[in-house]
Structure formats: structure tokens, C-alpha cells
Amino acid sequence: MEEALSHYLRALADPEVPVSISDVEHLLREYPFFTLPALTLMRREGASLPADTRRRLMDGLALNAADQAALAIMTDPRSDVWLDFYPSEKKPEVTTDNAIDTFLATYGHSTPEEDALLEKLIFNPTADYSMLLAREEEESLPPEPAPTDNSQDALINAFILKNKAPHQPAPQADDEAASEPPAALAPEDHPVAVKDTADDSSLSESLAKIYIRRRRYDKAFEIIHNLSLKNPKKSVYFADQLRFLQKLMINSRYNT
Fold first, then answer.
1. Region annotation Disordered: residue ranges (predicted)?
2. Is the confidence at residue 8, as pLDDT, over 50?
3. I need a surface site. Which of 55, 129, 225, 251 has the fewest CB within 10 A?
4. Do 74 and 20 share a structural domain?
5. In a domain, 235, yes or no
6. H helical segments located in the chain
7. CA dist., res. 221 & res. 212, Å (int)
8. Count of CB atoms within 10 A of residue 36's CB?
9. Residue 131 structural domain
């Protein structure tokens, strides 16, 4: 066994030294998982080996090989000829456009659930944490103490109730805000202040959501595009929305 191993190591170090079939088979019997000698023999002399010997060696290599494609390359002495016959496949780049295309191909149908998912993906609404915190604070307030109760807990509860800051009224929903009647016009000598950009943006986004529900993606695109022009600092935020709406517009043209 030592002689077979030492002979194989000499052959491994010097390509001019031939690999003996008897040494390889002896090493495989002694070390069944040591497949490097069989791999070396197949690489150097695989084409000239008898068919039964080649099949026996390949069976042993295949049982211990994790990657069958790599095994075929390593055991074939002519792999350098056919390995580059086909150009390597270029992996597609993961982009926002690809993600949108995948979404439309999977969910590009007309159901209320998918319309709601579309709206969520475009506008990415976040929870109003101020309302949640105000609600939790209201629920955690202590009960009103009795007038005759002078205990320490009653005094603490009275102090908390007395110093509780009044809460601002919760903001109305978009639909309720849109349904409110407009305020009366002020006299000409007292012009009203122009609404700030945030309120205008909120109403515009609400209108865009209505157009999306009605599949009027072109109108929604115009609204979001105008918002992007009026708010240059949020152009990155509006970019994905506009890209998504463009895909929806193209998809709706081909589906009608």
C-alpha cells in the first residue's frame, strides 16, 4: 500500500510519470473515499482506458462527487475544447423595473385585493404612530379618584389627570377631508393664506389613489409627476411611483 501511494504521489508531482491502473485500484480498495488517484487517471488517460475500467472508475467518482457537471469537466481530458463552446450565461441584473415586471406578470389582474396591493406598493403607506400613542395613553389613564380619598395613590392619579396635555384632534381620513365643504372666501382686502405644500400633496395623492382604483393610470401619473416637480427634495420618493405607473400604463394598453 505504501508503495502504491508513494508511486502515485510521484506521478502527481511529475506529469511525465504515468499513473498505474493497479496502483489506483489498490488505493481505492484501501481508501474508498480517496478518489483523487482515480480522477488523475481519468484526466490523463481516460480516453485510452478499457470501457469496463472507465465505467468502474466513473461509478466510484460519481458516488463521491457533489457536482456532477464539475465531475464531467474534471474527468474529460478534452473538456478545454468543449467547455467554452457556449458563452457563459449572463445573470439578469436585479432592478426595480424587473421587480415591477415580475409583480405585473404575477398579479396583473383586476380584483379588489390586487388593487389594494397595488396602491400599497405605489404609495407605501406607514402607520400613524402619533394616533396609536395617543390611543394607548388614553387607555392607560388612571380612574378619577373619589373626592374623599386622600391616599397616596389617589393623589398621584389626580396629579396625572390634572397635568395631562390636551390631545390634538385626530386627522381626518383622505375621503372625509375631500368631502368637507370648502371654507368661505375671505373679503378681497383680507386674502386668505395659501395652503401649504403638505396639504396640497396629501389631497393630490388621495386623488391619485382614486384614479388608480379606477385604473386611470395616466391621470395618476400626471398627478404624481406634478407633485415630483413641486417637491424636488422628494423626487427620489416619487421616482419609483412614476416608474411603477409607467409599467401599469403599458400593461393596460396590451391587455385592452
1. 166-188
2. yes
3. 129
4. yes
5. yes
6. 2-13, 21-30, 36-45, 51-63, 68-75, 79-82, 96-107, 112-123, 129-139, 152-162, 174-179, 197-213, 217-230, 235-255
7. 9
8. 13
9. 93-141+195-256
